[in-house]
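[Discussion] Sanity-checking designs against the backbone

I'm trying to build intuition for which residues belong where. Below is a structure token string of 434 positions. I'd appreciate it if someone posts a full sequence so I can compare it with mine line by line.
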């Protein structure tokens, strides 16, 4: 098969290739004969439908399928012969000036770029570390206590204080007119936990069951409800019930309720430390990975295939629609999401992917089977039933592929950190977890 290659601009190429017309014709006839064995038509027994009837009904469809298959095969063969790495789908059109007995086609497409990775030894990266402190364990233990707290109604003479759960009816008006989301009945929240605006909590704090109050509230300029942001509303609040919270004691009973069979409180604290250290490790890796990838982007040069960027834009738009759908947004599939919003992000992702792939190829940073297994086992320890989690991963090729990609990224991170100028930076636990 004769193949000619033209360079149109930067990464764009055009291949001209030919196919014997007889190859298409013969394949169409073969497929129609195969189809005739099972096709059904009124007035004929199965397998006895005349070829002329089969060709009339299915000839166009079969011709289309054969052309797609044969042209696709021919293009792949031509690209391989020309030693071209095709990026994205080609645009293929038939030529009118084909030689006798042949079909000729033009395929226009982009190729993967040459990736120039600069001198990594000149790059600088802040490598973060963090440690789990006793204060972090105390804070986590407090969260666990709150998850298991109970509430008891206060006496009518007792006022609402921070930590109490209040049940209220409220109605808000702006210029005397109610607004969407500004009213509720039997609404519950816990004072001091920041679920409501501070001005709202301040007004309710100190009220007793059965009391009502009217107060002004200024919505912040950046309030999520755009229709009321920056405006002042008048609220009428009636407290229906005030309940004091009861936190469980930090003792062996609490430890056992949290699955610690032995060791009591010390065993519970040790288990919390182990879980926090695992979470800190993953977050530190993520922070350092981001810093490494930023350094890679800055030190590398390459042209971006438009086809890959467009494909990534489409993937990001689809992901945004899926997120809207998961949030219960009506008609999320038809939501107007401008593709240009994702152009920069898509370009960066494609650039980073190409640079990382080149680094992996040059330095043999592929994920080893034992690394994949170790990563899954470590992740599984965060769950109540690790063995089930491991089976879940090992039983699905797609999930295994996702883990492999993470391990490769970790390998790239470690390699780059071994090459660049590293400044170690201790990050406080709370900052890392924020």
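Best answer:
Here's mine. Compare freely.
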């Amino acid at each position: 098969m004769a193949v000619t290659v033209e360079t149109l601009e930067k990464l764009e190429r055009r291949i001209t290739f030919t196919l014997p017309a007889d190859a298409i014709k013969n394949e169409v006839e073969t497929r129609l004969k195969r189809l005739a064995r099972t096709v059904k038509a009124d007035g004929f027994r199965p397998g006895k439908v005349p070829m002329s009837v089969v060709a009339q009904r299915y000839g166009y469809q079969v011709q289309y399928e054969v052309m797609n298959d044969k042209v696709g095969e021919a293009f792949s063969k031509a690209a391989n012969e020309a030693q071209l790495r095709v990026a994205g789908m080609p645009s293929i059109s038939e030529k009118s000036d084909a030689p006798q007995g042949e079909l000729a086609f033009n395929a226009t497409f982009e190729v993967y770029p040459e990736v120039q990775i600069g001198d990594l030894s000149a790059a600088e990266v802040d490598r973060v570390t963090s440690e789990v402190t006793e204060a972090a364990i105390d804070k986590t233990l407090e969260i666990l206590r709150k998850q298991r707290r109970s509430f008891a109604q206060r006496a009518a003479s007792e006022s609402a204080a921070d930590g109490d759960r209040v049940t209220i009816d409220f109605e808000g008006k702006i210029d005397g007119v109610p607004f969407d989301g500004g009213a509720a009945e039997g609404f519950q929240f816990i004072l001091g936990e920041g679920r409501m605006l501070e001005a709202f909590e301040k007004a309710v704090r100190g009220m007793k069951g059965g009391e009502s109050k009217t107060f002004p509230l200024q919505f912040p300029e950046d309030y999520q409800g755009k229709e009321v942001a920056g405006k002042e509303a008048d609220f009428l609040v009636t407290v229906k019930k005030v309940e004091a919270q009861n936190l469980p004691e930090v003792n062996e009973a609490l430890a056992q309720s949290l699955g610690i069979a032995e060791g009591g409180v010390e065993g519970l604290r040790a288990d919390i430390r182990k879980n926090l250290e695992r979470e800190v490790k993953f977050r530190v890796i993520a922070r350092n990975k981001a810093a490494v990838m930023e350094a890679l982007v800055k030190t590398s040069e390459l042209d971006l295939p438009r086809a890959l960027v467009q494909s990534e834009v489409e993937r990001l738009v689809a992901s945004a629609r899926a997120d809207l759908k998961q949030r219960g947004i009506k008609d999320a599939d038809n939501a107007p999401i401008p593709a240009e919003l994702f152009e920069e992000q898509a370009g960066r992702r494609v650039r980073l992917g190409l640079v990382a792939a080149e680094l992996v190829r040059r330095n043999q940073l592929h994920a080893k089977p034992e690394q994949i297994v170790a990563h899954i086992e470590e992740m599984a320890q965060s769950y109540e039933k690790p063995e089930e989690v491991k089976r879940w991963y090992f039983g699905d090729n797609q999930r295994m592929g996702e883990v492999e990609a993470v391990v490769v990224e970790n390998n790239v991170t470690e390699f780059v950190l071994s090459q660049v100028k590293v400044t170690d930076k201790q990050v406080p636990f709370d900052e890392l977890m924020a």
